Amino acid sequence: MAAILMIDDDIELCQLVADYLAMDGYQFDMVHDGVSGLAQAKSGQYQLILLDVMLPGMDGLSLLKALRHDNNCPVLMLTARGEDIDRIVGLELGADDYLAKPFNPRELQARVKAILRRVELAQHDTNQPMSPLILNQVELNPQNRQVRCQQQPVSLTATEFQLLEILMRHAGQIVSKETLSQQVLGRRLQLYDRSLDMHISNIRKKLHPFTADEKIQTLRGSGYLFLTGTH
Q1: Which of 8, 100, 124, 132 is an S-S bond match for 141, by CB 3.0 to 4.6 Å?
Q2: 25-35 pLDDT, tens per residue?
Q3: pLDDT of 124-139, one tens digit each?
Q4: Structural domains of the chain, ranges and CATH numbers in brackets
Q5: Pairs from 38-42 (Cβ < 8 Å, separation ≥ 24)
Q6: Are 7 and 60 in contact (CB under 8 A)?
Q7: How many CB atoms are located within 10 Å of the residue 158 CB?
Q8: What is the four-CA torsion angle of 9, 11, 13, 14, rounded to 10 degrees?
């Protein structure tokens, strides 16, 4: 069963989350400050990290930025309700999703399952022989979960990889935000939720150093289109 690390200085909340997720059989550890949390997160033994923004020693956004230098473990940010800037910055730094406090335990459970499903899918895909997708100077290899642009490696989170894979498999076709939200984030598209926009923006930023050509087009009110390079 998946191992989850929660980094949050609210000890009572950590215990409540631990008790709730224990019903699903998850292995659960908790750390209550940023510096210790970063060290624990880098251990490589977790499939998911629940990360609070407000932490003593090192705040959650700084922790995430440091973690993403060499670690793509999925991260679910826990933000204060109404703090939109924290959510946006968290997604820009590579968080896979966010949840506003106070949250319903069932919503947390659903987010956790959705993220871990992506991890499981990624592991399953590596055991299935699948040919690389090569389109518009981008090569995506489902076998080893690697992406290259102009022959240069591009490091993507699990969420970014799955988004890019879906768009590339439907290259030249519009993929709706609703479809991407359901298939990648595991939830219905919600009004004012900018998660998909931020993930797509991150993919663009990571591809941009290797090519000036636009790869993903945004169609307002419709969705996204991966360009085949023939337009």
Answers
A1: 132
A2: 999 999 999 99
A3: 555 556 789 999 999 9
A4: 3-124 (3.40.50.2300), 127-226 (1.10.10.10)
A5: 38/63, 38/66, 38/67, 40/5, 40/7, 41/5, 41/7, 41/67, 41/71, 41/73, 42/67, 42/70, 42/71
A6: yes
A7: 20
A8: 90
